[in-house]
Amino acid sequence: MTGRWHPLAEHVRSTSMLARGFADVFGAGDLAAALGLVHDAGKAACAWQDKLVKVSATGDRVNINHKNLGALLLRDRALAAAMAVLAHHGGLECPQDLASLSPGPGDEQALERFFDVVPEARALTDGPPLLPEAWGESMLLGEMGIRLVFSALVDADHLDTGAHAEGLARPRVAPPADMAELVRRFEANRALSLAGRELSDVDGVRAALYDDVVRRAAGQPGVYRLPAPTGSGKTMTSAGFALHHAARHGKARVIVAVPFTTITEQNADVYRQLLGADVVLEHHSNAELDDRRLRLAAENWDAPFVVTTTVQLFDSLFGRKPARSRKLHRLANAVVVLDEVQALPVPLLVPILDALRLLSRHFGTTVLLASATQPSFEHLAVWKSLEIRPLVDDPIRLFTRLRRVRYEWQLDPRPTLDDIAAQICGERQALAVVNTVAHARRLYRLVVDRRPDAEVVHLSTRMCPRHRELTLRRIRKLLADQEPVLVVSTQLVEAGVDLDFPVVFRALAPAESLQQAAGRANREGRLPDMGRVVVFDAVDAPVPAFYRAGVDKTRRLFGEGRDPDDPVALAEYYRRLYTGLNVDDARRGAVIQDNRAELDFRAVADGPRIAGVGSARDRLLAFRMIDEDPVTLIVTTWDEQGRAAELVRELRAGEGPAGALLRELRGYMVAVPRVVASSAHVRALCRPVVHGHDELSEWCGDYDAHVGLDEGEIAKETVW
Fold first, then answer.
1. Where do runs of H (alpha helix) occur along 137-291?
2. Phi then psi for 388, rounded to 5 degrees?
3. At residue 248, what are phi and psi to the nearest 5 degrees?
4. Which helix (H) or strand (E) holds 574?
5. Whole-angstrom distance, CA of residue 695 vs CA of residue 422
6. Could you read off the pLDDT of 269-285 as tens digits, one per residue?
7. pTM of the prediction?
8. In 163-187, which positions are buried (b, 16+ CB within 10 angstroms) versus exposed (e)?
9. 313-333 pLDDT, tens per residue?
10. DSSP for 632-680?
């Protein structure tokens, strides 16, 4: 790599986007120029096709397989990275596809005509390898590099094709962010937001924590840890660190990833108030299709400040399709904040942590791990050699200063859900958090039956985002006005959602979930006494299978006299959990890592082939943040104005830019597990928005004003 842009980069319009992407990936451009030189957008009339038309004998469009020909041209010098050219329409597969390529009929003549037009392109056929030397020393590093190369190429393809479709002279590309200006704007608006606030003792702790953490933003890029207790202002503090660090070290953007869409919506709203709506991109839709027009609308994270979900982030990072992958090169030279990092799925920890290690060490990414419930990742082999810089010197002292609740345990004898409903009804204001959608609906209805005159509210992801947002606003207003309110929710409220109740009832769950739920009790520390957290194990609402390993360790370590707010006990919990689950050598993570090392992108994303079963693949060994495939349903019957129905009509008719339509529709989308959506009576109520693609459908069934999308009682252990 030469560290300068190759002059051939001027030959293709889209190479300017490639150059920006590759500058972030590894700061040099020979490979970028080479990929740009062979890349073209085929039927979308990209620059190379136009050139080839001019030199054809008849003036007709030259009918060549530009993917194959481009990959052949680059294979000897770009090596496995030529897979990016081969895959930029259909998706990354495996090296055997690249190795088996051979020229097709007419390819050699087409290549000669190509060289006649651009004679300097002949240089691509001879010379040293274009890949950074380090990529050849580590297959996992090379695999990550190819993913980012593929992403930059796909993004350039999409941008260039989109510009052509809209009749633009140049693709739409945002100018580089002025991070120093964003820091100034953030600090000014933060000061304004605090100026009109009645400060509590907790606010003093938050201010001191913010100042101390932001001072450390001058530290070198790498991996940082922010062990901030619930209610300590982590949302503001982590963003402040990220922006100051980005401005100090020339980072291109800040990407904040959180586990639940509810937190994404809430945090994005906070950041928009502090930075401006033009700066913050909120992206958490699963509705990214392979349909050409909708695929062009997939977000590429070309924004200074991105708020997304960990599902979107990591399923994209380990995916193989163009629509999911086009955003990945934005991770290079960025600050990535992983909020509520304890929610990362344990079976996938090894590949996730390995990817973060590679991004940090080789691609200029700074990673911030933010959570009250900090997992002991450094005890896993994949991170033992990685330096994790603490942003809090004495977490135990900080947690002690912010202790605001006491725990009560109702595990033996075990109550029923009706017993818990009775206790909830005895409170003026209370929050109950349970483990599944079905449990939430049952408990909600039990409370309503006992207190039909009370303000009883339900929350779950079966409610579309706009419905949830309005419901949360109503809850906050009732709390602020000291009005009675009883809330029953799934765990979507327990990580980062800004609610403050005097008492929280929490169904038995792993320790990290108990601690997060406790963060909704006495959050501001305004009660004269401690808030209450009642942990219960209802006999008719058993712990779901996906929680049992964590619950087993929780039972052994916590109870009367020892609660999850103890950082020392929590560290011991994680050590026992990771050892008991054998995370370092667990089969799923190991198989994914092996397939990554083999550059078998298809096996990573879709699972390895099942021996003796034809083309079938083992999806249980694939990288998927949510094992149940989601189907996105658009609710068109909830809003009285009919806006969602009009947006769906425009999307079906191809009216207006698909990207803008999909962004607005996110407020009406509900993701449900495919096992639910595939049942006969649910399927009959779904109408695909794009013919042949059932992963995005219009919901034509009932939508309950209280519990949201009501697909009927299906006995599935699902949290979403």
1. 139-165, 179-195, 201-215, 234-249, 261-275
2. -110, 115
3. -70, -35
4. helix 567-580
5. 41
6. 899 999 998 898 888 65
7. 0.83
8. bbeeeeeebeeeeebebeebbebbe
9. 999 999 999 989 999 999 999
10. EEEE-SSSTT-HHHHHHHHHHHT-S-HHHHHHHHGGGEEEEEHHHHTSH
